[in-house]
């Protein structure tokens, strides 16, 4: 459903921001009362289920009033911006630089059509006649377009290296010669309040992805009946196999893609763990596909992008997929649809030095595996000591679906696959 806008154009009503989205958090305004805006110019940035979207103006006019403050939840169908219709289009045309910027507006996911950039380039023809050349419209997400605008880059001139030649944030930074760590023009710094009398050094607004995470975790804890089982895997041989693999490929490989492969094998052996719960219908949905969520830590908060059909990937394919998803999460260019639909999740706490954990289930999934830091220690096999490497594993399950015995059997299967690395590099049956 697309929210119907009033014919008089005096009020802009927040439209649907995607399937199933009924509200969004206002992150920041990009305009102020009194501003003369162009059609498709970005009005505001809003947060919806971890995805950052830009809301463009559906028409030209002068902003009369902004409805909402940063951090406020705005429901679909509410008035977002009021216009002074008498001034619509009556003001002086903007400077060329402003017109160029506003022509490259972002999109509202699933509802508002993307503003087309009409950026004419001219060249001389054979007879000296000037002919207009309009570059092809670049494929990119709203967040990437925002980065391009803030860096003053014509996104249509940037070669895309993403899937389907999509322009990524990395492409923008490479084209501009700037580092992603450099603060972009106009990028707001984290809002903080001064120290208070009770000794707090500063206060940070509880909003954006951090609030979304809190809401999701709270719902998971209050809904799923958590229990955690732990074990350790002897990954001495796997470490050797991993290094051999890396030498052949000429690149480093982490343990994570091997763990993901072991999890995929174990999920096929224990399909009850590869499931979702539909509490509204009181149903357990056993999934035939294996869609692995992989927790990614970003400066904006935790994100869990999904690798769909993970069991069909090779070791190298999984490593590439994780790297790609992690980069797009950190650059805020990940699509909302890539953060949904998981059937099982993995959290790599070992990358931060952790060993065991009690991970919270990514509801409506029924289990999550935390992978700890691989450590070297003395092991015993057939009465002989040897220096080996051990990987701590922590599995949390929803006891309503997976009881203790099933959870333990599943984790044991993961351990067995990790301790038989030869089987992991074989093509799945």
How are the secondary structure elements laid out?
Blueprint lengths: L10 E3 L9 E7 L6 E2 L4 E7 L2 E6 L4 E6 L6 E3 L3 E6 L11 H8 L17 E4 L5 E4 L8 H9 L18 H8 L32 H15 L2 E9 L1 H14 L6 H14 L5 E4 L4 E4 L5 E3 L1 E3 L2 E3 L2 E2 L7 H16 L13 E4 L19 E5 L3 E7 L2 E15 L5 H15 L2 H4 L5
Parallel strand pairs: 14-18, 18-19
Antiparallel strand pairs: 1-8, 2-4, 2-7, 3-6, 4-5, 6-8, 9-10, 11-21, 12-13, 14-17, 15-16, 19-21, 20-21
Helix pairs in contact: 6-7, 6-8
Question: How does this model look, in words?
Answer:
With 429 residues, this protein is an alpha+beta fold. The protein has three domains: 11-103, OB fold (Dihydrolipoamide Acetyltransferase, E2P); 133-188, Dihydrolipoamide Transferase; 208-424, 2-Layer Sandwich (Chloramphenicol Acetyltransferase), CATH 3.30.559.10. 24% of the residues lie in helices and 25% in strands. The protein contains nine helices and 21 strands. It has helices at 96-103, 142-150, 169-176, 209-223, 236-249, 256-269, 315-330, 404-418, 421-424, and strands at residues 11-13, 23-29, 36-37, 42-48, 51-56, 61-66, 73-75, 79-84, 121-124, 130-133, 226-234, 275-278, 283-286, 292-294, 296-298, 301-303, 306-307, 344-347, 367-371, 375-381, 384-398. The strands form six sheets. Strands 11, 14, 17, 18, 19, 20 and 21 form a seven-stranded mixed sheet that branches. α6 (256-269) packs across α7. It is globular and about 85 Å long. It starts with 10 loop residues before the first strand and ends in a 5-residue tail after the last helix. The model is unreliable at 87-124, 126-134 and 181-189 (pLDDT under 50).
